[in-house]
Design brief:
Elements lengths: L1 E9 L5 E7 L5 E5 L21 E4 L4 E2 L8 E3 L6 E5 L2 H11 L4 H5 L4 E3 L2 E5 L7 E4 L6 E4 L5 E5 L6 E4 L15 H12 L4 E7 L12 E11 L8
Parallel strand pairs: 3-6
Antiparallel strand pairs: 1-2, 1-4, 2-3, 4-7, 5-6, 8-9, 9-15, 10-14, 11-12, 12-13, 14-15
Length: about 230
């Protein structure tokens, strides 16, 4: 299976999550391991195959998905191979082809917007990955805890989401690249067209909540003036 990588997110230090679209069907695919998580050794700067805009041959895969994480495909990272990098115009065209105008189109009617975020109950939802074309420019900022966040105020209710775009953090995966965040926000304010990679987390229970839920987050910020900005 070959994918075009369009989601690349930070996890705990030393780990990443990556996903892309099947080059034949344009369905989203998230490569996962039988045990454990993907490490930063799989990133292109570290000699691995994964980077935004990279076309990667995952080798043989097996379906490991269940709602909402229907995109999961088990693979052997030792057999994954970088093939080539997509050109910026072709990459943007692929983003536009899979982008949707609303979150419901991506995740289905089970997505609930509340508490300035969005959730899907365990076992619900029709997908856990997608690309959103916001109706108005979002607001990107770093909060008081050093977390990059994004406000989407064109939604009702508006949401204030964690942004886990690996490129917006230093190599430790924890320290925000504040100058880069400010630069991206300036481009958004200037009207640069954006397509957002969005996703649902693995289920976890928020403090004070009564159940585990999948939480909405922004995975990546793709910009029309530089679709392939890299690590």
């Amino acid at each position: 299976m070959q994918i075009l990588v369009n989601h690349l997110t930070r996890m705990q230090p030393g780990y990443v999550c990556a996903a892309g679209v099947d080059v034949d069907t344009l369905d989203h695919v998230r490569p996962v391991l039988r045990y454990g998580r993907l490490t930063t050794r799989l990133l292109r700067p570290n000699g691995g195959p994964l980077d935004i805009g990279a076309v990667v041959d995952l080798g043989p895969t097996t379906d490991a998905g269940r709602p909402p994480e229907v995109e999961d495909r088990r693979f052997d990272p030792a057999r994954a191979t970088w093939l080539f990098d997509d050109g910026p115009d072709d990459y943007w065209d692929s983003l536009e082809e899979v982008a949707r105008q609303s979150l419901e189109e991506i995740f289905g009617p089970d997505l609930e917007l509340w508490d300035e975020s969005g959730t899907v109950d365990v076992g619900g939802g029709s997908a856990s990955l997608g690309c959103l074309k916001p109706e108005s420019p979002p607001w990107l900022y770093v909060d008081h805890r050093g977390t990059v966040r994004m406000v989407l105020d064109h939604l009702t209710p508006s949401v204030d989401l964690v942004v886990n775009d690996l490129r917006l953090y230093e190599s430790d995966g924890m320290t925000p690249r504040r100058d880069l965040v400010a630069s991206v926000q300036g481009r958004l304010e200037a009207g640069t067209e954006a397509i957002l990679g969005v996703g649902l987390t693995r289920p976890w229970r928020k403090r004070g909540d009564t159940a585990e839920r999948h939480w909405l987050q922004v995975n990546n910020v793709h910009l029309r003036d530089d679709p392939l900005w890299r690590l």
